[in-house]
Write a structure and sequence with these properties.
The complex is a heterodimer of chains A (about 350) and B (about 425). With about 350 residues, chain A is α/β, with parallel strands linked by helices. Chain A contains ten helices and ten strands. Chain A has three domains: about 130 residues, Rossmann fold (3-Layer(aba) Sandwich), CATH 3.40.50; about 100 residues, PAS domain (Beta-Lactamase); about 100 residues, Methane Monooxygenase Hydroxylase, Chain G, domain 1. Chain A has a five-stranded parallel sheet, sandwiched between helices. A five-stranded antiparallel sheet of chain A has the order 7-6-10-9-8, sandwiched between helices. In chain A, α2 runs parallel beside α3 and α9 runs antiparallel to α10. The radius of gyration of chain A is 50 Å and the shape is rod-shaped. Chain B is α/β, with parallel strands linked by helices and about 425 residues long. Chain B has three domains: about 200 residues, TIM Barrel (Alpha-Beta Barrel); about 80 residues, no CATH class; about 120 residues, no CATH class. Chain B is built from 19 helices and nine strands. In chain B, strands 8-7-6-5-4-3-2-1-9 form a nine-stranded mixed sheet. In chain B, α9 packs across α10. The longest helix of chain B has 19 residues. Chain B is elongated and about 80 Å long. The two termini of chain B are about 30 Å apart. The chains are: A alpha/beta (about 350), B alpha/beta (about 425). Chains A and B meet through α8, β8 and α9 of A and α6 and β9 of B.
């Protein structure tokens, strides 16, 4: 059995004894009080559950409960009232005083233990959720309907550098970077007016060290019967992300700028290459036609020389004809060597 | 800016662009091809009409940015778009309308083609193989485009000889190597396109989508047979994204780079009502969905535009034209809308120097009016006083212009219910 501590407070000694025996035999540690002041003192030992008679001497059970619920340390301790009368008014008063549950006399052991266990479990679960919020590395806070903080988690304190005491009770606009305060105010006024249940915003806030941070915030309206009773919000520091985004954007823009120039350069380059290609082709075509013409003309010259060689010539003339023939052959070879194509 | 959306307002779009060369190796023009933007090499087209429209609107304006001479821009239009006259939204002198190879030569289509040619467009038939259906189109076109990768040189020669004697230019597509090129040239080909010269290059641009409400207004206006210039003016003025796109379209060699625009009306007059109507319809149809909610920045832009316009109307800015100040104010938020430095944005827009300086030079008069508008947005009372004093403006007029401009802008962007 766990070592949960239960405080019992009753002015009737026999009832007090019954409660004590009952819980002790179930394995709980028990603190007891027989009047209001004692009950309050015992509660300072922070029990896990309080069983509180409504009609205690000196200070009534209702008053004790009210005070405990107002106290930061004891506010989370569940209180089960033991009302001295069964009237509706009394039961209502139990809840108004901040009680979590009630048990009527005469006590039934099993029912008593069962109810105590439920309250203890609930408290455990509540603690569990509270811990998630308290340990979160996101900003979590609540405000009333005018925007005054009534809860901030420890991460908020660490991020902003302000203590809880410095934040609670202040309006959240006081933490917004001044040039944005009016805009943010209008935004949230709009949220309240239009009852926008959830709203995403990115807002700049100021830390105690006058640094500004960007928060991405999901704020949710807390409603009670059509009336806005407050906000709760989760926010994350996105200053770094925003800086990176800004860097990325400027890199992307620089790239695009370069790309514009590249595309133009590329157009020019491909046009120059194409021009060279076509010029080259045109050159080849010119050379081809030149070669054809040379072939034809030199062929004609060759024919004339052959016919000339067949006529009666003097030795000197024959030597000249041979010189012309070899010059022609030489020229043909030269043309074919330099312009391509085989000699005939 | 307090943002309520994480995603930017602008959208990226992509288009691929491939040069076409003439027999001197000069770039005769560029073909624009649809590109979905995914990393796949092949363009993924879900709807041919939409793909054509994207290329004809955003793709066209972007490609123009790189045209420093009157090179042509070749755009493929589907049969449906040819029939509804869409190509007439583009400037005729540089636009080559590509007709799909499988188009039916219906009477209606031939009428449309005749009309296009009369207006000065160049018409090309794509994927020409010389079948009977295509031959019926030969009287209406200027260029045949032949995919040489699926044909032998003999087949190509046959096609060339079949159109001999006509004033039709021959464009060989998918030229892969020098041998192809040399043979095609010897056969008398006029234009060449293909990876031997240059592969298609993907271009990326940013676009601002029109709002649903302006799309709705435009479509509604088109239902009226007696469409008036005034109606169109109002619609364009109420949507910064359309104004921006229109200005980009006008930033073209066609309209002369020397032309400087200083008002929406000037822009409209420059392009003309008929062309503008066709162009607007393409813009509207190219996006399946517009912005269902008007981005805050659009509303704020409109408010600024109207505020400055009103101040000018009040006679406070004596030397200035209210229309100019409207355009200046409306576009003043283009930088955060596109998330692009103003300098880059202005490169693409044919705005007057007075307006451009207003964005860049803090000491210019226009800039001071803008600073006044910003001071009002920020409830910066000191700033308002100072600017009113510097500009010699009566604060009462400022207050009046401010409240009426907010009311007007809100009325312009209200949802369609």
């Amino acid at each position: 059995m766990d070592n949960k501590i239960i405080m019992v407070a009753d002015s009737d000694p026999s009832d007090l004894k019954f409660l004590k025996t009952c819980f002790v035999s179930a394995g709980y540690q028990v603190l007891q009080a027989s009047n209001g002041n004692q009950a309050f003192e015992q509660a300072m030992q922070l029990p896990d559950l309080i069983i509180l008679n409504t009609m205690l001497p000196e200070t009534s059970g209702f008053k004790v409960c009210q005070q405990l619920k107002r106290h930061v340390k004891t506010t989370d301790i569940p209180v089960i009232f033991v009302p001295e009368s069964h009237g509706d008014d009394t039961i209502l008063k139990c809840f108004e005083a901040g009680g979590d549950d009630y048990i009527l006399k005469p006590f039934q052991e099993q029912a008593l233990l069962h109810r105590a266990r439920i309250r203890l479990n609930l408290k455990g679960r509540k603690n569990h959720y509270r811990q998630i919020v308290e340990k979160a590395s996101d900003v979590i806070y609540c405000t009333d309907s005018t925007g005054r903080f009534n809860y901030v988690n420890p991460f908020t304190e660490r991020l902003l550098g302000f203590s809880r005491e410095e934040i609670i009770g202040k309006n959240f606009l006081e933490f917004i970077r001044p040039d944005f305060a009016i805009k943010v105010k209008k935004f949230h006024q709009h949220q309240v007016k239009e009852k926008v249940e959830k709203l995403y915003t990115e807002i700049p806030v100021m830390t105690k060290g006058r640094k500004h941070l960007w928060l991405a915030q999901h704020s949710q309206l807390l409603m009670h019967k059509e009336k806005v009773i407050g906000f709760q919000a989760i926010a994350r520091d996105i200053s770094q992300t925003r800086r990176l985004e800004k860097d990325l954007r400027s890199i992307a823009n620089e790239l695009e700028m370069t790309n514009r120039q590249l595309i133009q350069a590329n157009d020019n380059a491909s046009e120059m290459a194409a021009k060279a290609e076509f010029a080259n082709m045109a050159g080849n075509e010119l050379l081809d036609s030149l070669r054809v013409k040379f072939d034809t003309y030199l062929g004609d010259v060759g024919g004339v020389i052959s016919r000339l060689a067949d006529t009666a010539l003097s030795d000197v003339q024959r030597q000249d004809v041979e010189t012309i023939r070899s010059a022609c052959d030489h020229l043909l070879n030269l043309i074919h060597d330099s312009m391509g194509g085989a000699p005939k | 800016m307090i943002t309520t959306e994480r995603s930017p307002i602008f959208e990226y779009y992509y288009v691929a662009r491939q040069p076409v060369f003439n027999n001197s190796g000069e770039i005769w023009g560029h073909e624009l091809l649809y590109h979905s933007g995914s990393n796949d090499q092949t363009a993924e087209i879900t709807n041919d009409n939409i793909a054509s429209l994207c290329v004809a609107t955003s793709g066209f304006t972007m490609s123009q940015f790189y045209q420093d001479t009157s090179r042509k821009i070749c755009i493929h239009f589907t049969e449906a778009l040819l029939l509804d006259g869409s190509p007439q939204g583009l400037p005729p002198s540089i636009t080559v309308i590509e007709i799909p190879g499988e188009t039916r030569p219906s009477t209606r289509l031939l009428e449309m083609l005749t009309g296009f040619r009369k207006e000065g467009y160049t018409l090309a038939i794509d994927a020409y193989v010389g079948n009977d259906r295509q031959k019926d189109l030969l009287d209406y076109i200027d260029v045949v485009k032949i995919d040489i990768s699926t044909k032998s040189m003999q087949e190509i020669q046959d096609i060339f000889s079949s159109i001999k004697g006509r004033k039709i230019l021959k464009l060989a597509n998918k030229v892969k190597n020098r041998e192809d090129l040399q043979r095609l040239r010897s056969l008398g080909c006029d234009f060449y396109q293909g990876q031997f010269f240059a592969k298609p290059i993907k271009l990326r641009g940013r676009k601002l989508k029109p709002t649903e409400i302006s799309k709705f207004r435009i479509l509604q206006a088109f239902e009226n047979p007696d469409l008036e210039l005034g109606t169109i003016q109002e619609i364009i003025k109420a949507d910064p994204s359309i104004t921006y796109q229109l200005l980009k379209l006008l930033n073209s060699v066609v309209y002369g780079f020397s032309v400087k625009i200083d008002s929406v009306n000037r822009a409209i007059n420059l392009i003309g009502l008929k062309r503008l109507t066709y162009w607007l319809r393409m813009v509207v149809m190219s996006d399946l969905s517009g912005k269902s909610q008007t981005p805050e920045l659009y509303t704020l832009g409109l408010t600024r535009g109207r505020f400055l316009e009103d101040l000018a109307r009040e006679g406070e800015i004596k030397s200035s034209n209210p229309e100019k100040l409207f355009l200046f104010g409306m576009l003043s938020l283009i930088e955060p809308m596109l998330e692009m430095p103003m300098k880059m944005v202005l490169e693409e827009l044919p705005l007057s120097d007075e307006i451009k300086n207003g964005y860049i030079d803090n000491s210019s008069i226009y800039s001071k009016y803008l600073q006044l508008a910003i001071a009002i947005e920020n409830f910066d009372l000191q700033g308002i006083d100072q600017m009113c004093l510097e500009l010699g403006i009566n604060k009462k007029a400022v207050a009046k212009a401010s409240s009426s401009s907010i009311a007007w802008a809100n009325a312009m962007v209200q949802s369609m219910e």
